[in-house]
Amino acid sequence: MKSKILLSLTIAMGASSAFAAHHECGKVTIADMNWNSASLIANIDQFILEHGYGCDAELVPGDTMATGTSMIEKGQPDIAPELWSNALKDLLEKGVKEGRLKVAGKSLSDGGEEGFWVPSYLVEEHPEMATIEGVIKYAKEFPHPEDDSKHAFYGCPAGWNCQISAENLFRAMNLGDAGFDLIDPGSGAGLSGSIAKAYERKEGWFGYYWAPTAVLGKYEMVKVDFGSGVDKEEFTSCTTQEDCLSPKPTMYPPSLVQTVITSSLADKAPEAYEYLSKRAFTNATMNGLLAWMEDNQADGKYAAENFMFEHSDLWSDWVSADVKAKLNKALDNL
């Protein structure tokens, strides 16, 4: 009789341990940054961690510097889904070295992207326009909005960090000598609006832009090849510096965009950590998702639910078959 009781207790304890292990994720806080791609990823993570891994996942407001600092000093939030790491490189390295943080992986697999762009329909007509030499050759295809004697290059809005690099590269490639005028669009909306206007009229457009963005999801653009490759030393020491006297051509290096989590979360929820290490988006995919958000005036939560319904081909690769079944069941109940 005693042996039967002991056996029953052992089985019960084993089942209890298994249950506890399955629900060890517990409470998880996720930084919901104040730009669309980051908010979308945060909401996707919340849905998957909650319904697939049994986490009590909560979104909290965040931004790059404040979130990174808080994760190191206070251990909260647990997850920064889209952290532009170059902005706090030293701080992150310190957090990882001290064992407080872990880099789960890249949230944007090909990194944040910057460059000079032209519409694809121009490149289809003149393939040379995919290069800076071709842009200069066909400079007349880029009408100036106010001066018929000049050609238009749309730069980065005044006051933005990218204004410096765009202006330096404009000088490095002697675009002024080729008849181009560097136009300040006044704002991000002004810059995106100039692309939309050109596309609607099938006119030429040449200027600075970045990805992932809704604009590059809506309008097919081609990044112009400077023929220089990426010179990281030149980019860091001169291209991005206001006092750069003799800039040289260099393509923009991709910006490192990572998912960073606290070590405590990685330790208590290894399966969730494994999911976060696999979850990544290409810029092309994210551009399309952002365009959908803008067209449908969707917030991060609504866009995340749409993503889960419409893109199981993507998120299925990030999770196990068991977790996929749980997520599909949760979607059926929405």
Give a written overview of the molecule:
This protein is of the alpha/beta class and 334 residues long. The chain folds into two domains: 169 residues, D-Maltodextrin-Binding Protein, domain 2 (3-Layer(aba) Sandwich); 127 residues, Glycine betaine-binding periplasmic protein, domain 2 (D-Maltodextrin-Binding Protein, domain 2), CATH 3.40.190. The strands form four sheets. It has a three-stranded antiparallel β-sheet, sandwiched between helices. The chain has a three-stranded antiparallel β-sheet with strand order 8-5-9. A two-stranded parallel ribbon has the order 1-2.
Structural class estimated from helices and strands: alpha/beta
Q: How many H/I helices? A: 16
Mean pLDDT metric: 92
Distance between the termini: 49 Å
Question: What are the low-pLDDT stretches, counting only 5+ consecutive residues below 50?
Answer: 1-23
Q: Give the percentage of residues in beta strands.
A: 15-25%
Largest sheet: 3 strands, antiparallel
Shape: globular
| Whole-angstrom Rg | 24 Å
H/E topology pattern: HEHEHEHEEHHEHEHEHEHEHHHHHH
Considering the protein shown, what is the CATH homologous superfamily of the largest domain?
Periplasmic binding protein-like II
Number of beta strands? 10
In the sheet with the most strands, the strands line up as: 3-10-4
Give the class-level CATH name of the largest domain.
Alpha Beta
Keywords:
ABC_Gly_betaine_transp_sub-bd; alpha/beta; three-stranded antiparallel sheet; signal; ABC-type glycine betaine transport, periplasmic subunit; D-Maltodextrin-Binding Protein, domain 2; transmembrane transporter activity; disordered N terminus; 16 helices; 334 residues
